[in-house]
Amino acid sequence: MGFFARDRAEKVVEYHHYPEPSFITRRHRLRWWYRFLLGRPMDGVRWSNATFWSPGSRGEASWWLRLAGYQRLLIRLALLWAALIVLPLTVLIIMAVQGGELGASALSLLLSIAHTHLLIAAPVLIGLEVRAAREHGVRLPWLEKVEQEESEEERGARWVERRKLTMRTLVEGRRQWRRDVVEPLAMALSESLDNIFRQGDTDWIHVPRNYATPGGGKVEIMLPSGFSGSMNAKTVVLQKAVANKLGLQDPVFDWQLAGRTPRVLVSAPPTPPAVAHFRDYREMLERTMEFSPFLGVTTRMSDGAPLSELLSAEMVSDSPHLALSAGSGAGKSMMAKAVIMQALRWGWGAIILDWKAESHSWAKGLPGVKYCVTEEAIHDALERIGEEVDIRKTEGMAGRANVLVVCEEWNMTAALLSEYWSARRSMADQEERRTMPLRSPALRGFGSLTFAGRQFGLFCFLIAQRMSSRVFNGNADLRENFMIRLMARYSVQTWRMLIPEMKPIRKPKELGRWVVWANDEVTTVQGILISDAEAREFASGGVDNPLTPFSSSYRAEVDGATVEAATMLDDQWGNGAARGSALADRPAPVLLRKLVDLSLTLEYLGVTEKMLRQWRDRDRNFPQIRGGTANSGFLYDAQEVTDYVKAKLATRVARKEVKR
């Protein structure tokens, strides 16, 4: 189209122009030839959903605007050829027919033109034949010599095979990339950009094959001309859709909104440092807050430059338990060392269940550490942990230490515990066997540990080569208690098992490089390199640890005047003196929840999410925000909100009584 203004008939690609390179848009004549040779309307407006190879089915009703791009190009070239070649040749032919000296000159000129065209066309055709034979193993049909004795069926079969090979080589890779990567992204972005997606209509998105590589190609997304770029809900949805569909963690967005064709360029984020030494990040580790252990170093863009920072795990707001799934040699012991030494520095106890007896030898002998290496010791420790859960459930946390339970190489250990209990039960006499449960008490204690969590001060760090259901003795529901997951040297099947809602990202090949999933977000971090001496010195430099992981059980009297010690259940843990008033007075972990979750908890009081939001916006006495973001949702102290709601409802009841 080109010469008359038209109104848009349908919302095919809303307010879109065809994308054009910047060096084209600055030159008017070059832009004219660019549109001419691509078969596009000369005004650059996409009046229909036609592409270069496919005719349009929606949009402007004009037959010319619904033609495929190659059809418009052929018509234009035919008209141009007619104007530049046919008319002069016609004149020369007429002059040659008339004869005479002028006719002889015209005939000579016609023969020269014919010979020139043959000399130019022959090398071009031969070059095309050589290239097609070299790249695709086929010969062009107009230059191929067919043997005379070849039958009609053989020629037909050979032509079909040659056609399949050519199409597969030229088209299959591009079509599969568009079907698997580009079209899912276009479908996810169509709603946020007010664009009606039609299968195959992906000209407004360009995804290079090396987009996931740092420093690789950038993903280009053409935006509507009215796109403002403000951080509203649609922009946030666009960013999340790009990150999820392309499998990028914290991608970098370059918004280019000036001009008639706004766009956004998306690139892979910068990678963490190749090596992170403990001495370089010691000061940051010393400032770590309880229940928020640092896992590693990550890198983000700040003012156009990469900035390294430590990533922490939120064991209160996200998950009390951590799970690590990685192959052999990925650095599992080094990552566990960083978490254990931080917990010991906070004054926690630690129970390390290490069947290999060598993963955390640096922690042996430290105050508050119980190191179990044999099957019998690991079994008894888990059984004792299950009993401790019952104690803390009935008597509370007074006088009890927070405990980190480290379960090393659990793929092997879980199977050994089942075999150990089966062998022990089979060797018992008949009377004793009747009192022994079929299922191992150690596995029951492990299940109690995973379901207990922060309310009882018990935290689990599970380490396995692959966190399958066999790790949990066939109960895959236990895996849902580990909502902070670290992975390295994983397979695609492992990723889809642990993070099914996100597209797998490129597996890091660097030693000590981890993928951390928490709060429905994925981040790549570099683990901190720590020596055994540095770990022991750091762990011993904080709050005093209990003599044993489980301090003596304390039980407050009704009047609160005295506190008496109860005997421990198992002498193997020692008599365990109390940690003192500092530990006894330590408050329980704060539970942070979103308002939507708190409304379900307070439903029995007749409170809805709408009521909570109204009180938050109108009442200054509403509890303060404790964490979260506007996008993911703000977090509030569950106990503070509960006390506020009860006081609010009590005030309402009192006012009604006064009015009566």
Describe the structure.
The protein folds into four domains: 22-136, no CATH class; 157-267, no CATH class; 276-584, P-loop containing nucleotide triphosphate hydrolases (Rossmann fold), CATH 3.40.50.300; 592-659, Arc Repressor Mutant, subunit A. A hairpin with a 3-residue loop joins strand 20 and strand 21 (633-637). With 660 residues, it is α/β, with parallel strands linked by helices. The model is unreliable at 1-15, 135-150, 163-172 and 552-589 (pLDDT under 50). The chain has helices at residues 22-25, 28-37, 69-98, 100-136, 152-190, 233-246, 278-286, 332-345, 375-395, 410-427, 430-435, 441-452, 492-498, 532-539, 581-584, 595-601, 609-618, 638-659, and strands at residues 205-206, 219-222, 252-256, 263-267, 276-277, 294-302, 305-312, 322-326, 349-353, 369-372, 403-407, 458-464, 484-488, 513-518, 521-526, 528-529, 553-556, 563-566, 592-593, 627-629, 633-637.
